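Give me structure tokens for this 326-residue protein.
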Amino acid sequence: MKKLITFFAAAMTLFIVGGLTASADQLEPGMYNFACVDGGRYLNVYAGWDWDGVNVCVWDADGSPEQKFRLEDRGGNRYVLYPTSSTSGRVLDANRGSSMSAPLQAGNNIDIWQTNDAPAQEWYIDDQGGGKYKIGLVSNFNLALTCDGPWWNGGNVSLQNFTGANNQLWYLKRLDGGNNNNGNIIDRYRQIAASVGNQNQSAYTKWGPCGAFCIAYARTFLDNFTHSYGEYYWDGYAQWWYGRGSSADLGSDYNVLMRAKSAIDGGKPAIIHVCNQWTDSHYVLAISYSGSGANISDYTILDPQDGQIKTLNSYNFTDDKQVITF
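Here you go.
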């Protein structure tokens, strides 16, 4: 019938987060989310069930064990992917159908299985640029992990011949160790800032649009198409995130950091209210963190003032300890 999948994915590249992130020539072993470029939904073991043949689909990011996969290096650019929802060692697997001798081919469904069929369970991950990755079988790299229904929860995932379409490309988000403070996610946000703009550009010098820019950056990342700051800016200030996110005043610096960490762990950025010697009110977008995430210096931000990547300790928290999440 089936085999146990060992999600072997070799990569020559980085990991992405915050949407998802990594580093250079080869992916490091560790815990990851995989988000389909089309729709942004996460690779997901259905309902977190743990038996041979449980279907793999995509679902909105929710931080659950069924969306977290441990990437294990088997050498030679082969990796195995273990969902943390399985306590019995099952892995990501291309289902051959009723016979172990059946060919691996376009149309095979993706599920989880015990590790007993390396050609169907070893994966190679190839950097396609722009923070996007192709995940293909080591045994036949033309067959790629494909989301057949990226725009709804439960959209099925299967093997298909690779065409380069966005439903065959994935963002990777590191969840442990280096957490999300790596190249791909940061490169993605640099691209977003270049397309959306920033406050220092001549068209955007009026007071108040920092919150609107933060929302435009966040929504561009989450929706995978470019939003303008003008969609979220009116009357000079107003409630830029009204209807666009959830605002909370959290009472302490630590609570601010933990709320931002929780958002980033769920594949989403967080807007933080900050200040410094030049301004008593400014908003920045927290996009990744390193280490424990318990220190302000752990966080990387996109600053709408100039569209640059910085560390959060460039600023202080305001008295209201406000965070906006999505």
